[in-house]
Amino acid sequence: MIRLIRIILTSFVALTLCCGICLTSPGSAAAAAASPYDIAAGSTLAAVIARGKLVVGMELKFWPFEYVTEKGDPVGFDVDIARQIAKELGVELDIKDMEWTGLIPALQAGKIDLIISGVTGTLERAKTITFSRPYFTTGLCALTSTKKAPNLASVAALDDPNRIIAVKTGTTADLVAAKRFPKAHINRFKEETACVQEVVSGRADAFFYDQISIAKHHKQNPEATKALLTPFTYEPFCIAMQKGDFDLWQWLDMFLEISKSNGTLDDLRRKHFGELLQ
Fold first, then answer.
1. What residues does 164 pair with on adjacent strands?
2. CA-to-CA dists, residue 204 to 43, 73, 159, 175, 199, angstroms
3. Distance between alpha carbon 153 and the CA centroid of its chain, in Å?
4. 3-state secondary structure of 50
5. What ranges in the chain are assigned the alpha helix state H?
6. Does residue 182 contact residue 206 with C-beta atoms inside 8 Å?
7. Residues 97-112: pLDDT tens digits?
8. What pLDDT digit, counting tens, does each position of 193-238 carry?
9. Whole-angstrom Cα distance, residue 205 to residue 203?
10. Please, what sign has the CA dihedral across residues 146, 148, 150, 152?
11. DSSP state, 151?
């Protein structure tokens, strides 16, 4: 009996030593040694400050959020927000103009630090990237054709086999159209202007986009179009960053909260949207 107890004790000690070796392996020791300060030092926020430059991705074709002047200079609501962020960080701003469908891949690859380009925060997108709190809220509305759909009174009537809806590829309008209007024909286009032209020419019944843009396109084409400006979705525009960067996310949320409280965001809204929001 005593011998059996000795054998059990010896086995227990050996097992304990083995576990100790496993727990103190180089990889585990390194992970255990990572402090909050180490994590902060490796964040995008720290990298931006260290290099003295903030790289922001945008598609400069989304008036009045981001577009270019005749001289090619970037301007707009999102551009001013990006400039304000860079100013508060004490760094230069580098805006990278790229196609809409390339923005999220560029962010995930580390080619840009942020996306500020009228990006709608969605649960699906939040699986792969991180969003700030909303800095602007809107909803999808419809630009309809007076030629092809003169009597269309509601968005719901577009869920019909005889209806054609134009959407920009990769936008939330693209996703919503497929899910909520399964009976309609969905035609996808790379450019926003191509979608508008489909409606103006009467080749499409409607084009789905944000409220500001729909109001603008109707004002530019008052005879050929009608604007249904009651949003049928909730679209929170958020700043996008790489997944898991807590320090940058926290800083941006504080920035947006302060900008809202001190009136900066309201001033920018009035500057860029003016009568469109009245």
1. 185
2. 47, 33, 13, 18, 5
3. 31
4. helix
5. 2-23, 26-33, 36-41, 44-51, 77-89, 100-108, 172-180, 192-201, 211-220, 246-261, 264-273
6. no
7. 999 999 999 999 999 9
8. 999 999 999 999 999 999 999 999 999 999 999 999 999 999 999 9
9. 7
10. negative
11. T
